[in-house]
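Hi there, hope your week has been kind to you so far. Do you reckon you could talk me through the fold, stretch by stretch? I've dropped the whole record in just underneath, so have a look:
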Amino acid sequence: MASPPLAHDPNRIPAPLQRAREHSRAPSVRSVGSTVDRDGRVIEEVGSPGESVPLELLQSIYLSPNSPSPDTGSFPSSSGMTWTGTAHQRTESFSSDRYSPHNVPDWPSAVSFTSRTTFPPVKKLPKAQKRRVLVTGGAGFVGSHLVDRLMFLGHDVVVLDNFFSGSKSTLSHWVGHPNFELVRGDVVEPLLIEVDQIYHLACPASPKAYQINAVKTLKTSFMGTLNMLGLAKRTKARFLLSSTSEVYGSPTVHPQPESYWGNVNPNGPRSCYDEGKRVAEALTYGYARQDGVDVRVARIFNCFGPRMSADDGRLVSNFVVAALKGEPLQVYGDGEATRSLMFVHDLISGLIALMESDYSEGPVNIGSPDEGSVLSWASTILALVKDLRASGSIPPLPAGQKESEIEFVPAVVDDPPRRKPDITLAKEVLAWEPRWTVMAGLEETIRYFAGQLAEGE
């Protein structure tokens, strides 16, 4: 005789979901202690005066243990700023907790989700100060951090993204907020919208992503920029182009100032991105000279931080994920090529400072002078992961699994031998320079990826 079915207990949580919740409350991915800047001062806010956001508020979005409870909607408090708090709430709908997996009998244990009934607190701006901002590529690594900052500052934000390399999960905490709108679309198609500012970030930025479809990358750089400049012209919006240090190619000048014209292979495997960004800059200044469009161009150097894709092929994400998994850290060539690493919060501060500045005469380098060889960065990341494991800050490797080692693999074609920005201009016209140390940024990034990998398991 078959056993009678167990009575459904609405308070019972399936074991896999319970384990996931217990892990999310653990300190394994939470920042321990205070983060200090290059001058030894505790970082409590990021951004320039008047445009700053509490660091703890930003961390509550991307470091899962600090995330608000869907039941209580609690977020870190922020002093000295006027916020709307939890005034914006969703009404109960099909996403409410009564439809959560642990409340539905026989729901597959492998499926779990949480709902958000409140939103992060945003600054309350007077109508005259509130801007309508378009961010193309806003679901990507850099774009999502920019959206967070703009939302916290109280602006209306519209994101246009085709999710080729971006992810809806990076923006899920804003979906439904009255200040936020997400549009699935492609910049190669015209967009009819009214905006005050345009941050044009749309384009795959990692070699692995932009080489998948070289023609599409070129179309995005040219047609996408053409369409967004046309929109800026029609609406009289200020336009900021997210360019790249790749326009310098394999530089013969070191460090690279904005006046350097570059040394780029026009038909190599990386040319779809390098030359695409060069023509995007040419288009931008063509519209400025011919049609009077108010433009800004940021040449972004190597950037890292939470929300990087674990498999995007970039230096920091490659090394961090491999070290966390106990896999070899693959160094291309002899490892003597150099890179200068900048934490994402510094980049966002630089982009906003450039957009709000009066400087429009030419491109501005946004990067860090912290230069090191690829081999030295691999050794640093490996040592930091080991230290965080030893302190119990991140989960240990499975029993019997050895720590990662560094291995050398053949060099890739057209990989720049040296890369370091001259940021004199940014200091002069923006009063901007990196504030985060590389070590502080790496620690935050390692904790983020540790949490992502644990949740994936």
Notes: DSSP finds eleven helices and 15 strands in the chain.
